[in-house]
């Protein structure tokens, strides 16, 4: 069946979309434990970019899992499939000329590598939210860690499932950083990359 599927080329190209938008498109991928600050930093950075006129969109674990990935759980296999789809969705958004900010636990190196390969290395910026388990557990905004400690949640990342730290992230944000500092560090890093040159 696979052999009977053919690539359809569009009339409007990514390059034309980027030219019309006035900036490049790529993926800013936030990985880290639940509660490490991924959504907060991604959304605050998006706000800053949006206010400056960039075309942006946030893909967030909880939201994606409520819709397109609602059939997936937290086994290693389901997380891989979750991440595979995130990679493919990001690729579509990038092709549409959008700056994508994705916030996912994405605990396995091979899954993150898969996303990087799917969107292309030059379209991928990895942000490691390096907040300790202790601090995430202290925050425990959703009460998930408390439930995991009581054995009410299986496969909880950091407690009963692994988190493989990125070996060579583009940016590492430590828990001492304020939200504003973290956003500025990332913004300064991507500022040049946003510029579309004909
Ligand atoms: N077992 C377990 N482990 C980790 N996280 C859990 C779990 N169960 C539910 N949640 C909630 O799901 C959010 C993580 O989903 P992701 O799609 O980002 O996970 S993954 O990339 O497939 O590992 C995560 O969101 P964040 O807190 O924003 O990280 C949690 O709200
Ligand atoms: N840099 C930071 N300093 C202090 N608290 C933070 C910081 N970033 C996020 N938080 C807080 O930590 C909690 C979890 O953040 P969240 O963005 O939901 O994490 P994640 O998306 O990784 O689960 C929230 O209450 C948020 O306000």
TrEMBL record:
**One Pfam annotation, family name?**
APS_kinase
| InterPro entries listed in its UniProt record | APS, APS_kinase_dom, P-loop_NTPase
Q: In which pathway does it act?
A: Sulfur metabolism; hydrogen sulfide biosynthesis; sulfite from sulfate: step 2/3
The entry marks the following residues as binding ATP, namely 32-39
Q: List the CDD domains.
A: APSK
- Has the keyword Phosphoprotein been applied to this entry? yes
Q: What positions constitute the catalytic site?
A: 106
Q: From the record, give the transmembrane residue ranges.
A: none
Q: Which GO terms describe its molecular function?
A: adenylylsulfate kinase activity
> So what EC number does this one have?
2.7.1.25
Task: Give coiled-coil spans as residue ranges.
Answer: none
Report domain APS kinase positions: 25-173
| Recorded catalytic activity of this chain's protein | adenosine 5'-phosphosulfate + ATP = 3'-phosphoadenylyl sulfate + ADP + H(+)
Per UniProt, the keywords (alphabetical) are: ATP-binding, Kinase, Nucleotide-binding, Phosphoprotein, Transferase
HAMAP family to which the protein is assigned, alphabetical: Adenylyl_sulf_kinase (MF_00065)
Similarity comment: family membership = Belongs to the APS kinase family.
Explain the purpose of this protein: Catalyzes the synthesis of activated sulfate.
Q: Under what name is this protein listed? A: Adenylyl-sulfate kinase
Q: Which gene encodes it?
A: cysC
């Amino acid at each position: 069946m696979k052999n009977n599927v053919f690539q359809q080329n569009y009339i409007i190209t990514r390059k034309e979309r980027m030219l019309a938008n006035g900036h490049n498109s790529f993926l800013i991928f936030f990985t880290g434990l639940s509660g490490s600050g991924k959504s907060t930093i991604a959304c605050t950075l998006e706000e800053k970019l949006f206010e400056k006129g960039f075309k942006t969109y946030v893909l967030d674990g909880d939201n994606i899992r409520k819709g397109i990935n609602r059939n997936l759980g937290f086994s290693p296999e389901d997380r891989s499939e979750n991440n595979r789809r995130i990679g493919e969705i990001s690729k579509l958004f990038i092709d549409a000329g959008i700056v994508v900010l994705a916030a996912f636990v994405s605990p396995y190196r091979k899954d993150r590598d898969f996303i990087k390969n799917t969107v292309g290395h030059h379209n991928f910026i990895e942000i490691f939210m390096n907040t300790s388990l202790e601090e995430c557990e202290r925050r425990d905004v959703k009460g998930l860690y408390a439930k995991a400690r009581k054995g009410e949640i299986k496969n909880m990342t950091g407690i009963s499932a692994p988190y493989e730290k990125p070996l060579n992230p583009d940016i590492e944000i430590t828990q001492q950083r304020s939200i504003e500092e973290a956003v500025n560090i990332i913004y300064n890093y991507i500022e040049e990359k946003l510029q579309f040159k004909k």
